[in-house]
Write a structure and sequence with these properties.
This protein has 271 residues and is of the alpha+beta class. 41% of the residues lie in helices and 18% in strands. A hairpin with a 5-residue loop joins strand 7 and strand 8.
Amino acid sequence: MPPFPRAQDITPTHAPMATSGLQRRDWIAGLEHGLVILEAFGDAEPRVTAAQMGEKVGMTRTAARRHLLTLLHLGYVASDGKMFWLTPRVLRLGQAFIESSRLARLAQPFLQRVTAGTHEMAYLSALDGDDVVCIARNGLNRAMNTGFVPGGRTPAHVTAAGMLMLAWREPPGAADWLARVQLPTYTSHTITDTEAMRTEFANIRQQDWALSEQQLDLNYRGIAVPVRNTRGLLMGALNVTMPIGQETSETAVARVLNVLRDVAQAMRPLL
């Protein structure tokens, strides 16, 4: 995984939203540092001390402790006096997106159509930085090693939906991404060569769909198509995941691709 962004590295000139045109005088460092701390918790370090958090995000122990105590006061973290951990209140932030996002609100009936037409797990996904985020899903869980649940994040380059959205980033988005990132290995099938990924992106743009096989989980494949609005803007990706079994790639694509495309086209007038 890419290194976690350290607090001292986050400034208006190279923050994730720098392209929004935010002026330095309008930037609130404390707010951004608080969000950095919330995002720093993870399954590897679900409970941390103030000193550990400071080291992780590039703050002094005192600064990290002040931010953690503020988040404690607001109910977003809990503490035993030494360790800090997230509380369920954090889920309000994600739920607010689900409730306010037009794409997320209208997803379920369309995902049900995909599941009915393919008998596979169907997902609606969006790109957030270098990760693909599951917005909604429908169907029976096939017990993949990596759980794709609403709000779940996965490195984009090892999923069909993620590769599709990376490939269609506004120029020179895909080229810039390839020049910036490393491609870590998750399985023996993970694409880790930059030129190979560049070729994959070109193929995806030409055919307007993506296939990923065993890049994240062995014996699983994903197929994705773009979800666009009436102006042609990419809003997300509609995708299915399935065990490979004895089914060839060609057979799987022939079975599900037209269903995905038809449903994505049906969504378009509503976006």
